Amino acid sequence: MDTGFPIGTCANAKEAEHIPIYSIGICSSEGPLPTRICVAQIGAAHGIRGEVKLHSFTADPAAVADYGVLESEDGTLHFEIEALRHAKGHMVAQLSGVRDRAAAARLTNVRLYVPRERLPPAAPEEFYHADLIGLRAEDRHGTEIGTIVGIHDFGAGDLLELRPRGRTGTVLMPFTAVSVPVVDIAGGRIVIEPPQDWLEPANDRKPDR
Fold this sequence. Notes:
Strand order of the largest sheet: 5-4-8-2-3-7-6
CATH topology of the domain at 36-118: Elongation Factor Tu (Ef-tu), domain 3
Oligomer: single chain
Shape: elongated
Number of strands: 15
CATH superfamily of the domain at 36-118: RimM
Order of helices and strands: EEEEEEEHEEHEEEEEE
Strand content: 35-45%
């Protein structure tokens, strides 16, 4: 079955720094190794017949319809996708039980999940985003640096959002084999190789001359 999620060639520490370690899926519900995976988010109502804009998180946006019943994050809402079509920048979906614009509008921003067992296991060196969020980040000596709180892609590849230990802000780093040589999902950790001054607070850095 075509999973709809992107599958790429794995990278290793000997490869160039720009080669990514691939990650799949984008949102989670219950920390590391969640029992559900987020596959879409409902946008605004579309038209007057209950259709909604749908932001699919699968590589093939239409594949979101292949996973059967979708449920909301709190588990109280359940939908089947009865019809799905492409639109500019999103999909347009007819969800079961949603028959007018008012009902569709009430669903704006609802995230849709499927049980993890409906999805195939990630291949070696590939990871669901949901499994990465919450992992402890360590340096090569085992010292805890922070926690992964998000995964982002602004067009140039995946970035890890890390909250450094003891700090309130977050920092971004590329999710590459050189920057992240070890991903240990079972152990709840990753090993990172940040630049020497990467984690210094901004007011501690020496000004450029």
